[in-house]
């Protein structure tokens, strides 16, 4: 009990520690950003302080290690295991690899062979090695979240600055992001006091984002139970990081390829990344419309008036966006010029070639090694997967009822896939073309994919939790709405658990009730997604 | 020739004597088994209590004979190979599964498999066994309700090092793995036992195909409605 109390005390102090050490990180970042050519010894002092800060941050690791230890104790005592079933599958697969066999000899191993390779120390060292590895990966995810959010904030700051200059100097064509190699935030901000003021606020936002991942009970529990989904998160975030912060398009594509190999689902992000690199990508729809208007030479200047009005209107509302399009602008779903978006530019070609190269290399390598079974278990199975056992999915009962009935039309399958396909496509284009909403695009697509998936268990929410912190600063939701949505969401999930428990452990026929609860859970999820979209606004007044 | 006659006779007599003695010395097994199925739902436990009134433990141990239970698991049920491996590793129960177990298959697509449970022979008087097993999902049917899965009676097998006749009584010869490692196949003798239980049927909830029209319409419409709602929300924003 003593150790528990100690751990609790330590736990309470974490936010404080993190808040304390964030200044050093910023000063380091500031130092790096100040210089265009960073030399090795330029920012040593700042870096050292940042290092200390990181060491402190890593204390969140302790919570996870405590839980891993607890897991060992719990598994030894209790019949209901703390450790995830999949973790056993990984360990067995690793044993097969160690013996020079295929990891796919292990029944139900449906992951990349890399997982089994990584977890070989599970057998040679200690069976909890994998859990510790996943916990460390959680820390890397946190660092990546930090870097990405910081970059996004800086980019947003520089955008705001530009907008202000624009309003002073009159209407100009907004520069497309292609010409900017580095965020110009620091250079653009003139007065020193403003810098410190903004950086303090920025630190706060960055830290909150990071804490949202580090101390999320779901991610802690799932990581320490030995689930490999945080590895998928780290790869997705690494793609975002190399794409947004570093602008290494080829490397980013390569990471994306690895990511798709590792878990199939990030393949849905491909179009977003592609659109992000498009030369048609701007900061806001306003910018795009402005640029469209200015490029058209025959447009009279009077037509520009309403747009100015909208800008004023939206900023006076504090960024609320339920502002209708004004004037003669006609809203169409599809215009012929949208097809131009698909013509690749050099950046996009780099990204695509990186992706194809890494994906084919890895797939070919493992195909040579383990044969068709690898291809089937890691990729094809997840496409054809039809899990008829009860789960959170809206489509569970429908799939179960029609699973072995022959005369079911194709229309059912089409109607199941179409809504999510449409939404993912719309999100990719709509948010992907906006430089400030790439992260939100990824989040929205992940949410759509998870809630429309044919199989849905709580571990799928880790995919959302990994990208949610990136957009926390952009989703300006009132506290009451957050609480209400969280309450509804948790209640819907809890309500589902009752009939599911009765079915699974008491053998009562509650299929219909489970279905009703899945329907309500789906509605709750859609409501949350809808609210997130409504309150998502890159056009905020203050960062 | 003549000198050899008494020798031959002696041999015959001795042989006769020996056989008679062997017959009288055969182990008479008096075994009764009680069965109980615990829990409800998809995860059950079969508990068997195997009681032997004769012979006493020490004689049984000296005979070096072995007992095992053979359970033919019907397609509606499966024994989870992982759990079996775990039980074997911890030596809580020595088991072998004969046949491929697809843990994800529904009842009508699954195949039978056979489980051999090797009984701890040192304490033959009273052996208690707990075997975890799982029910498979069944195909949806009209009017729903519950599907029945028969749980068969286990067979009791015995094997002795020198001869199967070491144990009294006649029984069908069965080929089965010698131990849980299943490296060799032995010929076992199927014994009779007193069963203090009836063959039971387990009930599995089954989806109701009568729900299909409602479920398909609501589910698919809701999926589309969710999509339309999100699109409408999206059209109101101006990012």
Provide the descriptors you would attach to this structure in a database record.
heterodimer, A: 543 residues, mainly alpha, 69% helix, globular, B: 239 residues, alpha+beta, 6-stranded antiparallel beta sheet, 5-stranded mixed beta sheet, 4 helices, 26% helix, 35% strand, elongated
Low-confidence stretches of chain B: 17-23
Question: Biggest interface: chains and residue counts?
Answer: A-B, 66 and 47 residues
Pattern of helices and strands of chain B: HEEHEEHEEEEEEEEEH
Strand order of the largest sheet of chain B: 5-6-3-9-11-10
Question: How far apart are the termini of chain A?
Answer: 43 Å
Count of distinct strands of chain A: 0
Structural class of chain B: alpha+beta
Strand count of chain B: 13
Helix content of chain A: 55-70%
- Shape type of chain A: globular
| Count of runs of 4 or more consecutive helical residues of chain B | 4
The proportion of strand residues of chain A reads: under 5%
Give the DSSP E fraction of chain B (strand runs of 2 or more residues). 25-35%
Q: Taking Cα atoms only, what radius of gyration of chain A do you get, to the nearest Å?
A: 25 Å
In N-to-C order, the SSE pattern of chain A is HHHHHHHHHHHHHHHHHHHHHHH
Q: Roughly what is the average pLDDT of chain B, rounded to an integer?
A: 85
Distance N terminus to C terminus of chain B?
118 Å
Oligomer: heterodimer
